[in-house]
Amino acid sequence: MRMGLLVDVAVTLGWAALWTAANLFVARPWWFPSKNKLTLREAQVAEYTVGLIHAVISTGIGAMVATDPSMRRDVIWSSSRVFGWGYLVTMGYMVYDFVLILQALANPTPFSKGERALQWQYVAHHILVMSAGFYKMVVRTGAGDLFGSVCLLLEATNIPHNLRQMLLSAKLTERPWIHVPESSPAMLLLGVCFLLMYLMCRFVLVLWLFVLYAAQIQVPLSQVFSNIPYKCTIGTSMLLAMNAYWMKFIVAKIVRRVRPSTTSNVRNVKTL
């Protein structure tokens, strides 16, 4: 096993430990003593808060790489030292969040059938993401760094989402003063921001890569799919399919908000 792989794994586990420590601190900081047992709602607020912090950091790293003009000279083979270290932050977060999901599934706290199925979908999602990250650790090539930076930018959608869920869930915690009701204009604004950012980051940015590659190899956009390496086609197709899958739940939630009497049991989407 190469030293570089060991370093990457160590850094990933280090970030996972930092995210775990952040979760514990947010759930019950030392300056907020309480004799009450930590509730499920408080644990959820801590998870959303840590997710919000990670989303901001991940978005910043992705933006630094994606806006670098040198990265667009070769869409597939461009390499970035910033991304080489930055994606390990998200790898560590995925390990941390994966453990939380497994703990939730093992917890006797009752889940509805739909909620339990959703948790297992999160498990499958995290396994795919961690497998892709570990593959990059093993191969250690600059190929895909621009695509990877776009994947980090997908986390931008979780900024309004996690902030919204954090403010909604705070009502049943020992810090209810940060609660904002769902009927407030602030919640509506965050919901609109989430929808717009979801469409922009999870569809437009991915398709933007094809536009860049078409310009690079100087072919019409309609012919780029027949000229792109099959690994790139498979990777982007899987990403777009996954985003489209989650999009249907977002649309269902919007329909429920507009027509609350006609829809029910819509999932709370927590995306990558």
Structure characterization notes:
With 272 residues, the chain is mainly α. Helices cover 71% and strands 0% of the residues. It contains nine helices and no strands. The chain has helices at residues 3-27, 40-66, 81-106, 113-139, 145-153, 158-169, 185-217, 224-227, 230-258. The longest helix has 33 residues, at 185-217. The radius of gyration is 20 Å and the shape is globular. It starts with a helix and ends in a 14-residue tail after the last helix. The model is unreliable at 262-266 (pLDDT under 50).
Q: What is this entry, summarized?
A:
With 272 residues, this protein is mainly alpha-helical. The chain is built from 9 helices and no strands. It has helices at residues 3-27, 40-66, 81-106, 113-139, 145-153, 158-169, 185-217, 224-227, 230-258.
